[in-house]
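Reviewers of the previous submission asked for a worked example of the structure-prediction workflow described in the proposal, so we include one complete record here. The input consisted solely of the amino acid sequence. No template or homolog information was supplied to the procedure at any stage.
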Amino acid sequence: MQINNRENQMNLTPFLVRWMRGISSCMLIFAFAAISCPVAFAEAEKIYRTGLEAKKGRLAVSPDGQQLVFTTDRMTHGLRLLDLRSGVTAMIPEGVGRNFGFPAWSPDGKQLAVVSAEVRNNVYSLDGMEIELLEVGSWQRRSIAAGDGVKFSPFFSADGKRVFYFKGAKRESGKTPASRYDLYAVDLASGQETRLTHEEFYQAAKGDETQATVLFHATPNFSKHIKDAQGKESRNALFMYELATGRMSLLAIDQSSSIFDFSNPLRDSLGNLYFVSAKANPGGGNYLWYLVRTNREGKQAEILTELPISMRFSIAKNTGEIYVMDKKGEELIIRRLSAQAAH
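From that input alone, the workflow returned the following structure tokens.
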């Protein structure tokens, strides 16, 4: 129905003004929410099938959220690249007699840092481990850390100019193949390697560097036991290393939800912490494992999803999408969570 009467149009004007103001206010509210709370506009969860059977795996999503690389605990699966737009998976070529693992993307998405391990009789050789850079697409290789030492978990600095990794010493007995780990950094322009810590952690791995601090998880050696908020000895804890001063501190995590044993930390653009944590099983038996988010002070702990043991997660730095490894029966799958990180 058309309104042609001028009087009726004039009577409607105040209503239209209020209505338009209401829309403008809502648009401003939504715009502010989108900026300050990107989680509100998260997409629905999505599942990617790998077709591979495995007990555990590691993954790393590119900063633009378009590609993802992953490995499993089966050497024959190698390092694989998943196109998140098409769902197509491809093998990344490895050197003869070598195997790639622990992948991490450069901030510009043009390179991958990986652990390149020599394989002898279908077994990793701890004496032949290197940190290598792979050019995405051409897959040309460049070794940046070779020589003695067991090397794990490389990751780039926020500016892409350095690669950090953890080096340990081979063990001849015990449950773990190596121990006495410390954090090292390699300057990519000069090739100079620097040992940053002298803690000789029993285990140490996974980290990121932002705002001149390195966040990682570690298990102190047995002479330096740490305790959680309940006074119980904790196996894994989160540490912050200050690059300028060399100061290292233990991060206190809110344990009001009874979480403990923190590992594999990452941060988003607001400094919020994301990590894997354990929790007692109400029915007894093995612990349950979760992906947890807290604020930058380690408070306001929020469980985002449950994870199978030995599964990992990754965050697309530029888009905030969160991916986790999971299982469907015996098949390894990758899930994009509905929750998002700040970006």
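The CA atoms of residues 105 and 112 lie 5 Å apart. We consider this example representative of the routine output the project will generate in years two and three.
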